Every structure is written in C-alpha cells, then in structure tokens.
Amino acid sequence: MADTITELPVHLAERAAERHPLEALHEHCFDEGAYRQGTAGLAAACLNIVQTWAFGADNGGGVIPALGGLRESIFGGDVPDVGVLPLFRDQAAADGLPHRYRWHLLVACAAAGERLAMLEVSAGWGAIAVKLEALLADMLQLPLEGDALSERERTEIRIGGAVSRSVAWASLVDPVLGREQATGLTAKRTAVEKVAMRFSVNVFQALGQQSWSDGYAEGVRDAARKEAREGKKKAADEEVAGPAEPVIGDGLTSELEALFQRPGDGTVEAIRTRMLKTAVLVVKRSAVSEVVLKDLPGSLKSILGIHLSPKTAAALEHVREAMLHEFPHAGSVVDALMEGLADGQPLRLRPAVLVGEPGGGKSRLVRSFAERLHLPVATLDAGNCSDQAINGSPRRWHSSYPSLPLSMVASSQIPNPVIVVDELEKAGRSSAGSIHDSLLSLLEPLTARSWRDQFLDAEIDLSSVNWLFTANSLAGIPAPLRNRLRVLTLPRPAAEHLPALTASILRDIAHERHEDERFMPPLDGEELAALAAVWGESGSLRTLRRFVEGLLAARRHGVNPS
User: Fold this and answer.
1) pTM value > 0.70
2) What is the residue-averaged pLDDT of the chain?
C-alpha cells in the first residue's frame, strides 16, 4: 500500500491556492455583508472596490468618468438603465482598467439586470468549476490524509459553489441555458449529486421568475455559509489573478464551449447570438414621461428599459405526447398549434381560433397547451368585457389600469405570455367599443410593435405576446379579424377516446378534491360501456364529466352503473 500524503505536492498546492477574481470578489462581498442588501448592495460593493483602486492608483484617474457613468446608470433612477452599461464597461477598459477589475464591473452590471453580463459571469464561474475539476482529478490520484485531504475537501466545496453560481446566473438569463449548463458541469458527478443539481436549477428558475434578485442573493448566501462551515480559508490577496483567467468579451465563446464540453460545435455562439437577437425591449424608458413614472406601479417600473428574454421551447416532443394523451381526438389541432415551434427557440404561437361545439373542451385544450409550454396564461371572456378589458384605461381616470398584455408582461417578466380569449364571437359593442377593434392592431405585428398603451401614454412593443381564441362558430367574428387568425376546427371525440378522456377527467376531479389520484382507479370496462351508452355521440366533455361524477357517486354507494 502506498504511503499516505499529508501535505500536498508543491504544484498542486500552488494550484489550490490560486483564486480567480470572481472567487475573491464573492468572499469580499460575503464578508462585508453586501448580499444582505440584495442586488443593489452587490453592485455597490463591486463598484466601490474599483473606485478605491482608481483613486489610489497613478493611472486610475482615466477610469473615474466611466465609473461615474456606471454608478449613475445603476443607481440614478428607480430602474437601472441597462442599455448603456456595456458602453461604460468598454470605456473603462479602454481607459486602462486592469483586467482583474473588469470582473467587478461585470458583476455590478449583472446585478443591475444586464443579461449579457449575467451570461459572462456565469461563464466565469463555469470556467472556475472546470479548472477546479481538473485539480480535483489530480488530487484523487494520490492517497491524501490530514491537511492534504482537508484541502481536497475544500476543493470539492469550491467546485460546488462555482457550479451553483454558474447555473444560477445562467438560469436567470434563460432557464433552458441553465439546464444545459447544469448538465455540462455535472457530467462527471454522481447520480445523487446530479439529482441535487437538477433540484437546485429548478429552485433558481422559480426564484428567477418571481424575484430573481432575492433568489440569487439567498442562493449565494447559502453557498457561502456552507463553505464557511467547512472551514474555508479567506483569500490571502484579493488582487492575485489565476494564470488561466477567463477572457471577457471575445473570449466568452471559448469559455462556454469549455463548459458544455463540446468545443467547436457552434452551440454556445448560437445561444449567445439568439439571446441577443431575441430579447425584446417592451417599454423604452425614454418613452414614459416623468409625470407618469412618478406614480407607476413597481411591477411596471421593473420592465422599463429592460430587454426581456422570451420563454423558449423545450422538450416539444414530450409536450405533443402529453397533449395527445389528454386530447386523443385532437391530434390535428395539436399539430397545427405546434407548427413552427422548435426546441431552444422563442415560443411564438401563430394566432389561431379554435372552433367547436359548446362543451367540447376548447378552452381546456388551449390552456393546457400553453401551460405545458410553461407559458403564463391569462383568460378573457369576450362575452363579458369591452375593449377596455384589453386596452386598459387612461391615467386621467381615477380607477385607471394598464392594458392586459402589458400587465401580463410585467407580472411574468417575459415578452411572450399567452392570452386566451374565450367565445370570441360573443364580444358585444358598447359606448366603450368592442375588443374586436383592439385585437385588430394587436394581431398585426407591425402595429403591435408600436402599440400605444393608454395607461403609460406611450408606445410599447407587444409583438411577442401570444394570442389564442375559442369560438362556438365563426358567425359574429368580423372578417378583418378572421383574416388575421388561423381557423382550427376541434374534432368531436368518439367512443374509442373514452378511456383517455375519462382518465384525464378523473385526474382533474382528484386534484380538485385534494385526493391522491392513485386511490381513484380508472373506469373499468362495465363503467366505460355504461358511459358510452348514455354519452352517445354528443361529443361534449362537459356532459362527459357530469356522467363521470355520477359514476363516482355510484361507486361510493355500491350501485351497479349498468
């Protein structure tokens, strides 16, 4: 048996002692309590470090104007002006900012909400994880004990922290990218660790959709606490940069390719290009007057001047299978709705109206489709609303409110939510107008890009909002509006579809009753035969549900359904 090693060899000890600027910055921000102040505290701490250097260095004076511009853009208003942040970063670099401090500016901009900066910070943490994995692999070749073994354990903790932060930042930019990042970075981990990482990604995505700033800050605090409990050493010198420091800007592609472990296939550059091209500036900050801005709700302020990344498609084949399982009679409709969608691409549904008999499950189908795509959904009953239900109302009114599409974008923080309008043909007309009038401009891409919101009194871009409609018939839908929609006819379900349809209804009933669906067995042959006899060819899922509820009641009372 080989002799154990209690002290790391010099070449491994030197590698273990290296600290990337991101690691040193994270430790500094944790020690100073910056994370407790949320993203504003994180951004301020990063800028303060660079400012201290600028005031003390002989060549730091040239960087001060760019730092002032960054600080004003991040803290000068209620919402950071993320559009100008890359310009100030480039200016600081051109004016002589040392390379190690550029990571500080990237983290500050990422904390302010700039998505490209988030992506580059994610790449930096990922490169750290890859480098530490190589170090750990070399350590595992040796029989370590004592201090050497403790150093190996600290390296494993550092890897976990770096992976978590890389996945967190990537997930906040794009959940699909976050999942891919987690897959690449955990390729060599154990099955248990992979499950834990998938859970971590899901948590970060959920937090990101609700309150990404609080979610990230809490995630980093948790990682830091774990590292502290393991006795992690404080960085000896914050300004020491590792020799293999990732490159900002043009080096982003190579860094991310290393993370995905697919160098040269173009995937990373494609993701980066897609994210830059598909982000949507829904509301320009300059378009909203100071008078309006003063009393604007916080949810609307959060999207002013922000390029929002659209929700992207994922696992579309599974979505199709699930839809056909739930709606076995509607294969043609499902395929039509999915036309043009592709995994990894923004979810942009072609406007369509689903026509079918009353009670046929039209509303249920379109809502289920949107939910399986993980898109937020709002439903509007055309028969009980006027155009103001979509348009909102002018601010001069005492009870004014924003348009429905803008409210959905603000609440979901994505530019492509789904709005379902039920029974489109029943929309009436009053002194306030009809929703048909509003929809004409919202369904036209050119006018939707510069649609005037009455509440903001400004032009906004709603061209990415997805619209789906249902109708019992096309009569009552104006021809100009019909021409903007694909007309999809929902087939009537038949007796052979009963097993799948009733299984779906049973799941719904179990969910509504807060019961475990496993304790609600499927209908047997005798029950299905009884259903087929009374349901006949009506095709109404509403009627079918009433019959299923009757069968369940008969079960409870021991009554034979025949």
Assistant:
1) no
2) 77
